[in-house]
Design brief:
Layout (H helix, E strand, L loop, with lengths): L1 H17 L13 H5 L24 H8 L3 H14 L1 H14 L2 H11 L5 H5 L14 H9 L8 E3 L11 E7 L5 E6 L2 E5 L5 E6 L5 E6 L4 E5 L4 E5 L5 E6 L4 E8 L5 E6 L9 E5 L6 E5 L7 E7 L2 E6 L4 E6 L4 E5 L6 E7 L2 E6 L18 E5 L5 E6 L4 E11 L2 E10 L2 E10 L2
Helix pairs in contact: 4-5
Length: 429
């Protein structure tokens, strides 16, 4: 036994001088004859790569002996710390991992990630901000689309709206296009903002407040408060055409059909809201083309163009009236919601705001919800989600607006006994 121990020490000393370990393995405490007597390995066996397989790597026998006594968890901790502390160690570790991963493992991974049956289950857990996954391949694009319904829940996001425009906020509209812009009417001022909320241009109107607005790539259409007129303006405020109704109040809640007419609500002069109707104006000349909806509307308000149809908030009747763009009545829609006053259409869904003055329109089952929620609806009127007014808010106001991938909705809150306006921006529309 003493002679065997001397041989071990001799082998270790020679290992220090030569920088390598001889075929006698002191860690196993067995002579090489015992190691060589093992049964031959199967030809299919591939020995995992180690740091010793790298030609520039040398192994210290003393360090190897110390590492041999450590647990797997301790070795893992040392390996991670080494990779984090040294780029050279990290590169060597990655080289070993690359040569150690069996090819059939990679094939199994590819089989899962490219399986038409499994991809929807993988993508279903991703959120809207993970949308880059849809660009991986066509299969993932289809899977993202198939699982998108579960991600469409309104969630609040930050939005840096100019605070000075909130003081006398009237209405907002979007100039469509690749570089879409936001048009804001506040008091007598109209300001056009880019996506970063920087001012592109600004102008002041006449003595009449521009209460309701809509826009396209060339023009801004504005309803003048206290007068029976709608004005078409350039983006710098120059008046092009004006429509004036000689008898009734016309031009409220303007909405523009793409490539089609400008629709507005026309109120009866005697305030008989059962005589409300919709007028269609030529988008260029503002000449009256046709009118429709009389006797079908009671307190008409927010409008939304959905494909080749026009949805109208029939507020006092607790329903939506649907017309063709030519004015033909198609159907009526009712639901769990009441007193619709604001409406926006985005990607096959309707976003509806209820009136906050339900007491004027008769009994309301849930007065606490009156004007305090956004109802997300299917095109059939089914409620898919309800988003409450933000904390501190007392009611939503106006129609929702879709800008830069966000749903913008104004709401009112009380600050030091005064009503003030704010904007909430929502993702998930």
């Amino acid at each position: 036994m003493r002679r065997y121990g001397c041989r071990v020490r001799g082998e270790i000393e020679r290992g220090k001088e030569t920088g390598r370990v001889s075929d006698f393995d002191p860690l196993r405490r067995r002579p090489p004859s015992v190691l060589r007597s093992r049964a031959p390995r199967s030809p299919s066996y591939v020995r995992p790569a180690t740091f010793a397989d790298l030609p520039e790597m040398t192994t210290s026998p003393r360090l190897a002996a110390r590492l041999f006594s450590l647990s797997h968890a301790q070795l893992l901790e040392i390996a991670v710390a080494g990779c984090e502390a040294s780029p050279e160690v990290k590169n060597r570790a990655e080289a070993i991992l690359a040569t150690s991963m069996p090819r059939h493992h990679q094939g199994a991974v590819d089989g899962v990630l490219l399986s038409s049956d499994l991809v929807p289950h993988i993508l279903a857990s991703l959120q809207l901000e993970d949308g880059a996954a849809a660009a991986v391949c066509s299969l993932w694009a289809e899977g993202w689309k198939a699982t998108s319904e579960g991600r469409r829940h309104l969630t609040r996001v930050a939005f840096d709206f100019p605070p000075e425009l909130l003081i006398k906020l009237n209405d907002m509209a979007v100039i469509p296009g690749h570089d879409e812009q936001l048009v804001v009417s506040a008091g007598h001022t109209v300001r056009i903002l880019d996506r970063g909320m920087s001012t592109v241009t600004s102008f002041t109107g006449d003595e009449h407040v521009m209460k309701g607005i809509t826009a396209d790539e060339r023009s801004i259409y504005a309803t003048r408060d206290s007068v029976d007129s709608v004005a078409r303006l350039t983006h710098v405020g120059s008046e092009v055409y004006t429509y004036e109704d000689p008898y009734d109040y016309a031009g409220h809640c303007p909405v523009l059909a793409p490539g089609g007419p400008l629709f507005c609500v026309r109120y009866d002069e005697e305030e008989d809201e059962q005589q409300d109707e919709i007028i269609a104006l030529d988008a260029k000349s503002l000449q009256l083309r046709y009118r429709f909806g009389k006797s079908l509307l009671n307190g008409a308000s927010g409008l939304a163009v959905v494909g080749d149809e026009l949805f109208v908030c029939d507020t006092k009747n607790d329903r939506l009236q649907v017309f063709s763009l030519a004015g033909e009545h198609h159907r009526s829609i009712t639901g769990e919601w009441k007193r619709p006053v604001g409406l926006c259409f985005v990607k096959d869904r309707l976003y509806l705001v209820e009136s906050c003055v339900a007491y004027e329109y008769g009994p309301y089952d849930d007065g606490q919800a009156c004007g305090r929620r956004i109802c997300v609806l299917s095109l059939q009127g089914d409620t898919l989600q309800v988003y409450p007014v933000p904390a501190g808010g007392i009611r939503f106001s106006g129609s929702p607006l879709y800008f830069d991938g966000k749903l913008l909705v104004s709401y009112v809150y009380i600050d030091r006994s005064r009503a003030r306006s704010a904007i909430v921006a929502l993702r998930g529309a």
